[in-house]
Amino acid sequence: MSPDPTVSPAAPGVVPPAPHLAEPSMDHVTAASFEDWMKAVARGFQEEHHPETLALDREVFEDDRSFGFRVGDRWVSTCGALTRELGVPGGFSVPTAAVTVVTVHPPYRRRGLLSAMMRHQLEDVARRGEPLAALWASESLIYGRFGYGPAVSRLQLRGRTRSLDFLPGVRTGGSVDELTREQFLTVVRPLHERLRRDRPGTMARPADHSWEFALFDQPFARDGATELRHVVHWSEAGEVDGFATYRFKEDQTATEPDSEVRINELWAEDPVAHATLWRYLLDLDLARRFRARNAPSDELLRLLVHDARAVGTEVLDALYVRVVDVAAALRARSYAAPLDVVIEVADDLLPANAGRWRVRTDGPAESTTVERTDDPADVALGVLELGTVYLGGVRLADLHRVGRVTEHTPGAVAAAGTAFSWHRAPWCPDFF
Ligand SMILES: CC(=O)SCCNC(=O)CCNC(=O)[C@H](O)C(C)(C)COP(=O)(O)OP(=O)(O)OC[C@H]1O[C@@H](n2cnc3c(N)ncnc32)[C@H](O)[C@@H]1OP(=O)(O)O
């Protein structure tokens, strides 16, 4: 799949072939074709192309991981992966292909281009030795057939800010300040790196452009709200131990203040920082409503307030995880309990994963061995189900209860389920 040097831009008036007669061919992006590829991405998502983000896009996307199908010089589908690290139980970061910009131009849909791109990409991820791939799905039905399981959920929280008094015992303290973007990055980058160790599902943000993404603030991304505001919490001892970002959305039609605080992400090292940051955001003058679109599924706000029902809560799917290398992925995480089990995995797309694996661990990742075995299976499941439980956010026993996991040895699901669980729910505040 080397770039075709004979492809040159068609003259403006030259009409492409009818889609049913065209034969798209797969190709990688080059510096010369990148802008057209980004235009195809925007078109595939039914969005506008934003040339003002081209320089950032160029930094973020890697040519050898960005590809698609073309007809002549015209991209009719796109697909990409970013080289990232995903936090897993035990505080480790696992090399992960962050899959993104998957589109097929409407005239070329439902003729197998997505399937071909997914196959090509998974083989490439396996070749690179990355144990995992992960993605945010625009529609939840697309990716199951390729082995991606909904491993992380999110909460969408909303409510009236004036109904959210805290219970008397809730401790707040220290102070909150709003910083410029540059000041914020100075103090928050090391704090984020520390805090994410305790939160499976989060992604490392080592490069400047991954923070650019996290703090993305082009006017077209604001949905009529203010620029992004950067908030930190200072502990009593004068250390920064929490941070949040938010926007303020004014309701210009209301005769009384009724604006909304839109919280992007909120991180805290301890309960005081957590409660104080929430209190700050809920007490902003002129606001009467709040919305947090991507709160962790174990967000504690409901336990802090008098009126738990006032925190409107919707559970939504977030990150989908695909196990690309079963042995490496299972060795990379820690377990909540010792385990010795034979797991049989079905994987039609990556046959190297299929078969029986003995997983032995005392708990910590360093103590874990995962080896192929001919011993009979204790538990059997598909690679989608393995990805679903991998970060500890979905219980193996629940998948068994609904018939998606088979137990061959009585008690094996309970034992494996306990070991695969984790004390902290996975959360993914990283959109890509
Ligand atoms: C990580 C991300 O980037 S998420 C973004 C995904 N992209 C979008 O939402 C943009 C708009 N949609 C599209 O561009 C396209 O419709 C795509 C990429 C979702 C699908 O591309 P296609 O080339 O039409 O898919 P393809 O023909 O390979 O279909 C493979 C199978 O998936 C099914 N499928 C494809 N899209 C969907 C969908 N949206 N919902 C349910 N099933 C789907 C097909 O019916 C087909 O099923 P089959 O194998 O049983 O026949």
Automatic annotation (TrEMBL):
GO terms for biological process, alphabetical: aminoglycoside antibiotic catabolic process
Keyword Oxidoreductase: no
Residue numbers annotated as active site: Y143, F432
Amino-acid positions noted as binding acetyl-CoA in the UniProt annotation, renumbered to this chain: V102, T103, V104, R110, R111, G112, L113, L114, S115, S138, E139
Composition-biased stretches (Low complexity): 1-13
Single GO MF descriptor: aminoglycoside N-acetyltransferase activity
Subunit structure and binding partners: Homohexamer; trimer of dimers.
HAMAP family xrefs: Eis (MF_01812)
Name of the protein: Putative acetyltransferase
Originating species: Nocardioides aurantiacus
